[in-house]
Amino acid sequence: MINVGGKSSTLRYARAEGILQAQPATLERIREGSVPKGDVIATARAAGIVAAKRTNEWIVFCHPIPLDWVEVHVEVSEGELWITAEVQSVWKTGVEMEALTAVSGALLNAYDMLKPLDKDMAISGIRVVEKRGGQSHYYESFSTPLKTAILVISDAKHSGEREDKSAQIIREFLADQPVNVETSETLPADKGKIRERIEKLAKEEGYDLILTAGGTGFGANDVTPEATSYVLEKPAPGVVEMLRKFGLDRTPYAMLSREVAGTVGSTLVINLPGSSRGAREGMQALFPGVLHIFPTLWGGAKEKPQ
């Protein structure tokens, strides 16, 4: 199975369809309700719902997904029995396999009920016709990548006593995002220097996104949130709530984080933890949804005003 532990849960939806081709007389028996094995439409619908809920039991690499809604529609038309299935869930992976399985289960049950009456039936056209949700659904693109800076806050890393891994993790993650990391620096845990550097990057050097890593705990030298808060014009509490929620799903220590986020003009500033794991999980929590703030900052435009 694919490890989806680094993904966020989002609303997922899929719709699939399939066809059972049968003789007109067979389809008429369905309409009349005179099939010996019973009500084909009701049975196919129920079978499709059950099949969707048990998809992971026979699709080897499917995760067991908590389904919020499954609906199966059965329609008798000229020469065909149409099956449509809709599935919805708030989870980390898509639900197209659940929709396909629902259609398949409904069609197979209908076939089984009708086979004594019709030896020439054929199942065809099973396919996904619509899917929504997931990270790609919220992806933003810009013709000019966001000018981005990474600031690592640590006395030990600034002096060379400790190797810095968090900046590299952040940079590697951002390689697949519409950003351009033009600055990556290590600063000492000095409130004044942190504040001055953020202000200069935002107000003088025109950076769109500033990510800090480190100095967000309760140690004597953890002053990044205080330095950042001094500069911020508009706090972004939802960004921080997402960081903490994502972290709390993985460790109770996330409750001890003190990150802040917000804007300075049209620049977004976000504090991240300094640990390698914290930096990675922070990026997984934020992207791509956080990118939607930039069109808002730019007055609804998809590109930054010059």
The poorly predicted ranges are: none
Strand % is: 25-35%
> Structural class from helices and strands?
alpha/beta
Helix content: 25-40%
Q: Report the principal-axis shape.
A: elongated
* N-end to C-end Cα span: 47 Å
Structure report:
- The chain has helices spanning 24-32, 40-53, 96-114, 155-159, 166-174, 191-203, 224-231, 237-248, 276-286, 293-297, and strands spanning 10-21, 69-77, 80-91, 122-132, 146-153, 179-187, 209-213, 234-235, 261-264, 267-272.
- With 306 residues, it is an alpha/beta fold.
- The strands form two sheets. The protein has a six-stranded mixed beta sheet with strand order 6-5-7-10-9-8, sandwiched between helices. The chain has a four-stranded antiparallel beta sheet with strand order 2-3-1-4.
- The relative contact order is 0.13.
- The model has no long low-confidence stretch (mean pLDDT 93).
What tags apply to this protein structure?
Alpha-Beta Plaits; 2 domains; elongated; 306 residues; Molybdenum Cofactor Biosythetic Enzyme, Chain A
